[in-house]
Amino acid sequence: MLSLTINGQSHQIDLPEDMPLLWVLRDHLNLVGTKYGCGIAQCGVCTVHVGGKPVRSCQLTIGGVGTRAVVTIEAIGQTPNGAKVQQAWMEAAVPQCGYCQAGQIMSATALLNFNPHPDDSDIDAAMAGNLCRCGTYIRIRQAIKNAAAKTA
Amino acid sequence: MADTRSSFAQSDAYLSALIREVRAAPAARALPAIGRRTLFKLAGAGAAGLVLGFRLGDAAFAAEVGNDNTAASQSLAMNAFIRIAPDNTITIYSKAPEIGQGIKTSFGVIIAEELDADWNHVVMEQADINPKVYGYQGAGGSTSIPRAWDQLRQAGAGAKAMLIAAAAELWGVDPSQITAKDSVLTHAASGRSAPYGSLAVAAANMPVPDPKSLILKTRGQYRLIGKRYRGVDDPKVVSGQPLFGIDVQLPGMVYASYTKCPAAGGKVRSFNVDEIKAQRGVLDAFALNGTGLSVEVMPGVAIIAKDTWSAFQAKDKLKVDWDLSEASTESSSQFSAEAKKIAADFPKKPDQDVGDMDKSFANAVKTAEAYYDYPFAAHVPLEPMNATAHWHDGVLEMWVPTQQPDRGLPLIAKVAGIPQENIVMHQTRVGGGFGRRLINDYTCEAAAIAQKVNAPVKLQWTREDDFSHDFYRPAGYHQFKGAIDKDGRIDAWQEHFITFTADGKKEASGANLTDNLKYSIKAPNLRRAKTMFRLKIPTGPWRAPGDNAQVFAAQSFMHELSLASGRDHVAFLLDAVNREVPELAPKDKSINFSPKRASDVIKLCAEKAGWGKTLPKGSGLGLAWCYSHAGHVAQAVELSVDANKRIKVERIVVVLDVGPVIDMAGSEAQAQGASTDALSTAIGLKITIENGRIQEQNYNAYPILRMPFAPMTIEPYFIQSDNPPTGMGEPAFPALAPALGNAIFAATGERVRRLPLRDLGYSLAI
Q1: Among B382, B578, B623, B699, which has the minimal tally of Cβ within 10 Å of its Cβ?
Q2: Residues 6 or more apart from A33 whose CB is under 8 A from it?
Q3: Which of B109, B230, B239 to mutate against chain A (most A CBs within 10 Å)?
Q4: Residues A37, B462: C-beta atoms closer than 8 Å
């Protein structure tokens, strides 16, 4: 039995320790906002925050989470930067198919948490791990800048 | 089961027909007059509130008043698209799949425009699949807007007419004196007004107007069409709410993986069933013979497990003894080598022979020859293929992220051996289509698996499954020869197209030369012939089928010819497109190709890009255009190239004429997204086949463009000509690659004649 803190809630989980966090979230906790895309940390759609850092949840086993708090897209809007990023995403009409956007938002929020006023190269570095097959990068970049402009 | 060869051909024939059908945007056609009244109830419409339901089906545009309108919970059907609640909330049903092209928003805007609804109180919902009510419910070929344009406007205008009729009766005034705006009806003379919500009950009992009697708005009257909108699902998208097929979770649900032969056409002899069933979390495992058709169910092994991870883990342990006797042993490198070898031997029997080629070349002032090629490509949208099915009570209930849910119905019925009426299909949001999800193979697999599982089951492909079992954009090889006459005009175009066939008779699906090209080449002497290689690997529609790569080859060679002519490229293109060559004019009246619209986008693109300006050494400006999916599009790329062949894209300009724009924000998104996709594909994407097996298995081997390499800006411009609106999903793709190649030539003097450009040593600079 493992204890995981996800979105501020403690969960007692009776699952193999080598199961990736992604599938525990999706299939066992019904938190389906975190997506499956590649299974090898190449696309970033499974990005969540673990201990405040953006992590590809397809590669992190639940045994490896330890006591670090997990935050997913479902709860990121409860953080100041998360809410700003989500708002900026909607104002810029970023999503096309929308499938990658949860991961993009988690990476962007983590960026602003560490660097409230990122320049283009900071954005490039922070977002390079998140693929968008529809090609929404221009609006993602703009939305991050808009969100940053609102950061106090 | 038919022999494998004919199964390949049969699958391919199905797809070819589907592409033809999807791409043929029907000419506007009057809907039939009022038909018989039949009740149509919307799913979930029994709740409080009111359903207005037109039945816009096969033969009827009929209003419905339900038999059960006895209480507050009455459900009055007047219109299958619109529901108005007493609190003035208007629910609009989007009939076709949202795959990222934005139609769930655009469809709502079109209906709300004619309804004169208050957009701030419109809620968009996805309609279930019911082709008898809604007609076509697919999303392909950029035809959603042109196909639905009249139907949606009539639905909105018809409901508004019924609301007005109800108010006129209530107030004892002439309907013509009532105006509608923002979900409120007003009779100015008497100062009376009423919100739609208060009139909905009475309106639903009004006679349904003959759609032909409805006066639709003219462009000058639009209040909603053409503005900028946020995506209607965006609040759910950004907060991770369940929307997509992969998000479907049902009580008692189990999870399936399905493993097919890595070489197309292989069959299951046996597998390590006992070992698999003993794996952690595994509930069952079994082989399926399938129908042997790649568009339905190919043979494979299904593993049923308690969660996706367990199904994937067991899949890794799977050892299948494949019968490879009829499987593909093809290799893309062999095709490339063979094509190059035979390219110069022009076939004796051309498919098209206009004018006098030999005479043209004899009299030519200049000639040019070139060989172009491009590889197979995979779609790989970010949501891997999946579908959920529940076989219960003699009904197959399905949740499907597909572009053609309606087209899946007969296939699923066949695979499951049940009548189509016994399938209940819910459509979900779709995490990317690009043409991949026009094919319903994975929904058919889910249906076949569900019949052997006593629970709801979600079939989940791995990303590797998705790479291995796609319907690929076919590779293509073009040997061109062109002639320039004494006036510097294009006089002859000869093309040997080397492509693929599944049946040995005609091109495989997506592997034919598109008609669009000949409208743009306009050489008075034109001869084209093809050579086809047999192929077992399935091919299919890929964003802007045919055009997506053929325009690269053709418009790059047009640039070569313009250089040979000594004339300015833009002048050369304008001259060609405005030429009268009756044999090359569209025969089909529904083809909306227009030399004027083409000229206008070319000219505006040149102007916006600063055509003719002086650029520093190592920089270049390239331009190309295309007619694709009923859109006229020109694209320009300005870039610089360094000594290590690193390309810095400075600017991309996209000019489109797709008629009036419905949602400007969405249309700009498509223009930018398609251009980015095209840049990504031109620079880096390639599928390699080795002994019938796809070598690229995940995104690490298939470098889709990432943020650091994305252009900082892509500037879209729209010429909103007074033509019926056409789709935006595809037209902004094809001309980007030739504009890029032409710019590279302008910058470096090196002509790129092969995609992806990374094979020629090019890469994008950060």
Answers
A1: B578
A2: A72, A73, A74, A102, B239, B240, B241, B242
A3: B239
A4: no
Rg (CA), chain A: 15
Q: Return the residue in B101, B238, B428 with the most chain A beta carbons within 10 A, the one to mutate for interface testing.
A: B238
- The region, left, alpha or beta by phi > 0 then psi within -120 to 50, assigned to residue B81 is alpha
pTM for this model (two decimals): 0.94
Contacts of A133 in chain B (CB under 8 A): 380-382, 432, 434, 677, 704
pLDDT in tens, B135-190: 888 888 888 899 899 999 999 999 999 999 999 999 999 999 999 999 999 999 99
Mean pLDDT of chain B: 90
Which regions of chain A carry the CATH code 1.10.150.120? 77-149
Please choose, from the candidates B384, B366, B403, the residue with its C-alpha nearest in 3D space to the C-alpha of residue B101. Answer: B403
Q: Find out whether B294 and B238 touch, Cβ atoms under 8 Å.
A: no
In total, chain A counts a number of residues equal to 152
Q: Which domains does chain B have, with CATH numbers?
A: 50-238 (3.30.365.10), 245-326+385-460 (3.30.365.10), 332-377+472-764 (3.30.365.10)
Contacts of B255 in chain A (CB under 8 A): 27
- H/E run at residue B336: helix B332-342
Check pLDDT > 70 for residue B52.
no
Tokens describing residue B675: 């251009």
Q: Is the pLDDT of residue B53 over 80?
A: no
